[in-house]
Amino acid sequence: MPVLNRAAEMQETVAGWRRHIHENPELLYDVHETAAFVADKLKSFGCDTVETGIGRTGVVGIIKGKHGDGPVVGFRADMDALPIFETSGKEWASKTPGKAHSCGHDGHTAMLLGAAQYLAETRNFKGSVAVIFQPAEEGGAGALAMINDGFMDKYAINQVYGMHNEPKLPVGEFATRKGGVMAAADTFEITVNGRGSHAAQPHRSIDPVVASAHIIIALQSIVSRETDPLKSLVVTVATTHGGEASNVIADFVKLTGTVRTLLPETRDLAEKRLTEIAQGTAIAHGATAEVNYRRGYPVTFNHDAETDFAASVAAKVAGERAVDTGMAPHMGAEDFSYMLEKRPGAFIFIGNGDTANLHNAAYDFNDEALPYGISYWVTLAETSLAV
Ligand SMILES: [Zn+2]
Ligand SMILES: [Zn+2]
């Protein structure tokens, strides 16, 4: 079964919504216009419930099937844009300089709206579908804010599914994997405290620049000597700041960076050893190190049965050969991970074709992918909630 006929017919309308959202990008939790647009559409489709203001600006719509009680399946899209100056040159490019839908969340929102309209018209399933539109995916943990507002328990959601577009993957193809599919993203700040002096009198100083240089090198051994080579880990020192003048040894140096992992035990190891190595190396140089390690989004962990199910649904839409079930994980992070910590489910990638990469100023969501995304959601609903 290829793309659903009705989904193909909807493409132009849904592309219109997508371009409207694209022209009017909003950041983080400040997605008031987008959320209002989504809520208006859901009401006009006749959703049984439309609740706004969840996790500040999130929206949930409930669509009941016409075949009686059953489970509740949650489908999630994200609504926020990025602080980027768009250079796509498209007719529907951002009207707000410095804000752009460079991650395709406009497309995710439009596809889920299209599916909601279809499902509200047909209702050919038992139980209910919850369509979830979240703010602040790009660094603000909007998914967690919505969860903390209790929507998953309130609407008794049993399973959750998410989707993200993937540039370079051909349109009409899907990719996923079981287990860790996107990384946990943590950040750290190390302050190396020494004692400043005249640069010509190093013996009167405790040089934090030399100590921090040793720390940067020593941290490389967490990946190369302490982690199973088959388990992914990134430790990057991304910035180093210290000192003002070429003839002065500074009092302190600040290092910042990120740690990416795909397994909880690797994450624990990295946090523990980063702290020990920074502090121990500082002491070896007579200095001290304060380490501030902040855990960000957790690993996006796909559950086995639901990943198999999601892949089988994608295969119904796109054909067996168009679904890669063994994709390499991304070391980027995704806050749908918080929903997957609460409920079983799966995250899948949908081909965006030969476009610019995500978070690139020239990026634009590919409207040709819309019927595939809509068909995926509809088929997922009608199969998981089959009568
Ligand atoms: Zn993004
Ligand atoms: Zn994204």
Automatic annotation (TrEMBL):
Molecular functions (GO terms): metal ion binding; N-acetyldiaminopimelate deacetylase activity
Peptidase M20 dimerisation domain segment(s): 187-279
Record SUPFAM superfamilies: Bacterial exopeptidase dimerisation domain, Zn-dependent exopeptidases
GO biological process: diaminopimelate biosynthetic process
Binding residue positions for Mn(2+): C103, H105, E138, H164, H359
Cofactor annotation comment: The Mn(2+) ion enhances activity.
Key word Metal-binding present: yes
Keywords: Hydrolase, Manganese, Metal-binding
Pfam families (UniProt xref): M20_dimer, Peptidase_M20
InterPro entries xrefs: Amidohydrolase, Bact_exopeptidase_dim_dom, Peptidase_M20, Peptidase_M20_dimer
Superkingdom to which the source organism belongs: Bacteria
Cofactor(s) required for function per UniProt: Mn(2+)
Glycosyltransferase in keyword set: no
PANTHER family noted in UniProt: METALLOPEPTIDASE, PUTATIVE (AFU_ORTHOLOGUE AFUA_6G09600)-RELATED (PTHR11014:SF63), PEPTIDASE M20 FAMILY MEMBER (PTHR11014)
Name this protein carries in UniProt: Amidohydrolase
